[in-house]
């Protein structure tokens, strides 16, 4: 038994060293955004911080669930009707110009999917996700500037239109990173036997927040004004941008070293009390 304990301890030490070496490969950006002062990789979030279904869950898993809730809420506020209506009025009722901007986001996501995935696998997923956070900030700044100036009718509408077109390309990159490297790191941070359960939590949160976004938009129109002017639509877009900035901040804090090794089980802190009791009972029988 002592030999087995020593072997297990040596294996754990080897695993820890391997994860530390893996963390050394993180880029400077990831190190700045993911400082070692954070809790240990095996840190399990307490129940008073997160919903009960995520109690004592891996750090990356909790962070990704919170990110998806905020991301779904923010996008559903501004990327649908509000943006299309704003562009339609800005471009003097041109459906074609609206279509170009709407298509830019999807095309950019498609074009950058492979490069982003390669960089995440080759170097660091958390670093790529953090870069996506900074792209988020740049796209949000450009969107706020263009919609503000467009609503104030300062300068040519074409200038604001092209800024929004570029900003939507940035949002396409952000969406590709959230749906690509971020979800890949999420999968690596969940035990294989429970992965479907965690994805169920993820998509439920995303779906509910995507429904809440349009409802919040209705509230904004009801409280302020139901006039679909550039000024009013701009305020709705600003509300969405506030959520996007929070999403960008969350993207800076993922950790490669919190991912589980292939086939690795949850730590004792991450296992529920029922699982712990079952293991203790088996040890007593032995």
TrEMBL record:
InterPro entries: MFS, MFS_dom, MFS_trans_sf
One family name in Pfam for this protein: MFS_1
Domain of life: Eukaryota
Membrane topology, record value: Multi-pass membrane protein
Residues of the Major facilitator superfamily (MFS) profile domain: 60-286
Chain segments carrying region Disordered: 261-286
Keywords, alphabetical: Membrane, Transmembrane, Transmembrane helix
Coiled coil spans: none
Keyword Membrane applies: yes
Major place of residence: membrane
Compositionally skewed regions (Basic and acidic residues) per UniProt: 270-280
Cellular component GO terms held in the UniProt record: membrane
Annotated localization: Membrane
Transmembrane parts of this sequence: 62-91, 97-120, 127-148, 160-180, 201-224, 236-254
PROSITE patterns per UniProt: MFS
GO MF term (any one): transmembrane transporter activity
PANTHER family: NODULIN-LIKE DOMAIN-CONTAINING PROTEIN (PTHR23525:SF1), TRANSPORTER, PUTATIVE-RELATED (PTHR23525)
Annotated protein name in UniProt: Major facilitator superfamily (MFS) profile domain-containing protein
Native species: Lotharella globosa
């Amino acid at each position: 038994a002592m030999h087995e304990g020593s072997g297990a301890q040596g294996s754990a030490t080897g695993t820890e060293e391997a994860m530390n070496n893996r963390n050394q490969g993180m880029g400077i950006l990831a190190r700045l955004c993911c400082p070692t002062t954070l809790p240990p990789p095996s840190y399990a979030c307490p129940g008073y911080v997160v919903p009960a279904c995520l109690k004592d869950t891996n750090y990356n898993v909790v962070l990704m669930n919170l990110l998806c809730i905020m991301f779904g809420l923010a996008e559903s506020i501004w990327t649908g009707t509000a943006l299309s209506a704003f562009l339609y009025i800005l471009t003097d009722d041109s459906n074609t110009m609206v279509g170009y901007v709407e298509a830019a986001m999807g095309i950019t996501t498609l074009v950058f999917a492979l490069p982003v995935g390669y960089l995440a696998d080759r170097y660091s997923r958390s670093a790529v996700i953090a870069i996506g956070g900074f792209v988020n900030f740049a796209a949000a700044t450009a969107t706020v500037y263009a919609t503000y100036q467009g609503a104030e009718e300062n300068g040519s509408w074409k200038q604001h239109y092209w800024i929004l077109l570029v900003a939507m390309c940035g949002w396409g990159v952000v969406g590709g990173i959230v749906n690509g490297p971020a979800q890949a790191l999420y999968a690596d941070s969940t035990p294989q036997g429970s992965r479907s359960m965690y994805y169920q939590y993820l998509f439920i949160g995303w779906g509910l927040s995507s429904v809440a976004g349009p409802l919040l938009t209705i509230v904004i129109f009801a409280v302020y004004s139901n006039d679909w002017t550039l000024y009013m639509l701009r305020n709705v877009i600003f509300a969405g941008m506030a959520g996007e900035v929070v999403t960008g901040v969350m993207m800076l804090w993922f950790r490669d070293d919190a991912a589980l090794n292939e086939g690795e089980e949850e730590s004792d802190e991450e296992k529920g009390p029922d699982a712990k009791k079952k293991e203790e009972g088996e040890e007593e029988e032995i």
